[in-house]
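Write out this protein's structure.
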Amino acid sequence: MNLRDKLDVYMRLTRMDRPIGTLLLLWPCLMALMFAAGGMPDIKVLVIFVIGVVVMRGCGCVINDYADRNLDAHVERTQSRPLASGEISSKEALLLFLAMALFAFGLVLLLNPLVVKLSVVGIILTILYPFTKRYTNMPQMFLGTVWSWSIPMAYAAQTGTVPVEAWWLFAANWCWTVAYDTMYAMVDRDDDLKVGIKSTAILFGQYDRQIIAGFQTAALGCFIIAGVIAGRGEIFSLGIVAFIGFALYQQKLIFGRERAACFKAFLNNNWAGLTLFVALGLDYLVL
């Protein structure tokens, strides 16, 4: 395999060719930095977190595919992944994960000790997540914690503390993550049932749409509380209204539980997160 082909395999293994996960991780992280700074965060902290989000999302994908290497070949959406198809060895994938994790940890060492301590918890959560699909029907809830861990880290990096406001934002993102990752799991539900992978899409069963709506509503409530604590104004409120619109549209998409429509609903959450982030930024800029 030549260098170009090897890089292509690495790109696909780390999902660098599919940035949706990075973006869904990035928007709440940037919002946390903005909330913590009361506007524009420290440039050094901002750069470290943006790079860290990209690297850690890649880490999560590698360890996820390693854990699922013997199952992905039986799932329609994942059977062409590099580990499942044999394009890369398990050993090489683990070495790539280790290299990326060490690089991310090196970035964290440029920040304060509290961030370093929180980052250790973050990497442990990242490693554990893929294996939760074997033992619990609620891996999406565990992922919500993994996907939200950058929020207390962002506050710690910017202010040296993790105030109550941070945990409301954490709760908002946790609920939102459970909602959109359940939509994602609905795409694979039939295949997952065959191979024994567990998910909230399976757990919620016929009430999946209603429970997703409940998590979306809880996320909105927590976002609103975080905004009120931070003293945000009308523009952020418009972002909340837009977020509601996106949630309603996603509910329409998943109504028939069709694979393509559920995946489209999942992808639509990127626009929901981007819109709320932009609204928050404009709110700080104008008010």
